Amino acid sequence: MEFLLRSFPQGCLVQREAGRALGYITSVRHEKSGWIGNLLVSREARRRGIGKTLMESALEALTKSGVETVWLTASVKGAALYRKLGFVAIDSINRWVGEGRVGPGPTPAPVVMETVRQVDRAGWGDRRDLLLESTCGRGRLYGSSKAFICSQPWEEGTQLGPWGALVESQAQQLLDLALSGAGVQVFLDVPAGNIAAAALLARRGFAIRGSNTLMYLGAQPSYDPNRIFALASMGSMG
Description:
By secondary structure, the chain is of the alpha+beta class. About 30% of the residues lie in helices and about 35% in strands. Strands 1, 2, 3, 4, 5, 6, 7, 8, 9, 10 and 11 form an 11-stranded mixed β-sheet that branches. The mean pLDDT is about 95.
């Protein structure tokens, strides 16, 4: 939340009534694209149009900032609302859960951040520098000439991602490094379109525990799921 409020405060909004928060939405802008992070409305305040109002306000903020494409991951319940607003499904995102290894893990070697940016851009078709600096800066970052993976600690376990690769063999090598010392509970969000990522994880005992729909609004993105092995997610699906 601190990262979102610092990088794109005009797209992080809350709906209040008598001083009480009924719902909120977060969003972030990259170079030509943006993301809707969370849209949550308290159970007792639903079916009053609060979610729709928050979404439209965040979309307006992103559009005014020059964003051409807006991304989000949608639950089954949320997808219907987003379709009405013009969002189009482009892929599914699967939550994979497995185990790492307990221990200190290897010390990451220095990684060239420009390589991280270029690999990430090959998947998403946009520069996402602020997001990469925030996510990779809070965890362990492992990299090679054509791949990178970030291991982020959270209260509920270790999240792997963002994780990108131009060469599958390098993705595999970095996964094994990241799993060393990641602890018992490990999770990551992977595009269903990346068959290689699914095969790597299945061989290491990971299994799918949930799925959301990846959607976009606006200009069709230059999206290549084969380069995206896991999303940044910031601790949640998305």
